[in-house]
Design a protein that fits this description.
The complex is a heterodimer of chains A (116) and B (114). With 116 residues, chain A is mainly beta. In chain A, 0% of the residues lie in helices and 47% in strands. Chain A is built from no helices and eleven strands. The radius of gyration of chain A is 13 Å and the shape is globular. Chain A starts with a strand and ends with a strand. With 114 residues, chain B is mainly β. Chain B is built from no helices and eleven strands. Chain B is globular and about 45 Å long. Classes of the chains: A mainly beta (116), B mainly beta (114). Chain A binds chain B through residues 4, 31, 33, 40-45, 48, 50, 55-56, 59, 91, 93, 95, 97, 99-110, and chain B through 4, 6, 32, 34, 36, 41-46, 49, 89, 91, 93, 95, 97-107.
Chain lengths: 116, 114
């Protein structure tokens, strides 16, 4: 499809395990974002990529969280030593507008992470 | 500290009537505001936006009003349709920083009844 694709759609893991979540943005979109939505909350910003580099990672909660985008397209969010509090829907979004030109983001359906 | 607040978790409106969803913000650096709609098991989709230099923006059945002095915005949907039933998120971005990093409210679930 032409939209933002996220895999897996659902991931159940045990506390302490390592998890990778993948995002395939809309072709040609240079800006890529990761957000996290906990139950009953709105999406919270995690990290923003412009091309291959992380332009703003101020939303990453701690050093267990890391994200890469090595070729400026697909991105992977990596969570080490998962904790129960990491359980949430992880949303990826892309935008054709670099920086803050418009603010409109195209979101994927999200990856629901459950840490037991 | 919730910088974008949607104080009504839910709203029920009859089909054909007007739906009014409200949003308040505290950060005076916010200068661009957006509304997103979210259906279950889908990602949020962009609905309408407004820049702080305007006080109204209209797109078909959807109108967003911005009151900067009150730090308040509202989304009007008229006439409401059953397909409008979804969770609506208000979001804002600040003029500082390099990214269009959005701060979201907690959402309002709109149900349009027949």
């Amino acid at each position: 499809g032409a939209g933002v694709s996220q895999t897996p759609s659902n991931k159940v893991t045990e506390k302490g395990k390592y998890v990778e979540l993948r995002c395939d943005p809309i072709s040609g979109h240079t800006a890529l974002y990761w957000y996290r939505q906990s139950l009953g909350q709105g999406p919270e910003f995690l990290i923003y990529f412009q091309g291959t580099g992380a332009a703003d990672d101020s939303g990453l909660p701690n050093d267990r969280f890391f994200a890469v985008r090595p070729e400026g397209s697909v991105s992977t969010l990596k969570i080490q030593r998962t904790e129960r509090g990491d359980s949430a829907v992880y949303l990826c979004a892309s935008s054709p507008h670099p920086g803050r030109a418009a603010g409109e983001l195209f979101f994927g359906e999200g990856s629901r992470l459950t840490v037991l | 500290d919730q910088q974008v607040k949607q104080n009504s978790p839910s709203l029920s409106v009859q089909e054909g009537r007007i739906s009014i969803l409200n949003c308040d913000y505290t950060n005076s650096m916010f200068d661009y505001f957006l509304w997103y709609k979210k259906y279950p098991a889908e990602g949020p989709t962009f609905l309408i936006s407004i820049s702080s230099i305007k006080d109204k923006n209209e797109d078909g059945r959807f109108t967003v009003f911005l009151n900067k002095s009150a730090k308040h915005l509202s989304l009007h949907i008229v006439p409401s349709q059953p397909g409008d039933s979804a969770v609506y998120f208000c979001a804002a971005s600040a003029k500082t920083g390099t990214a269009s990093k959005l701060t979201f409210g907690t959402g309002t679930r709109l149900q349009v009844t027949l």
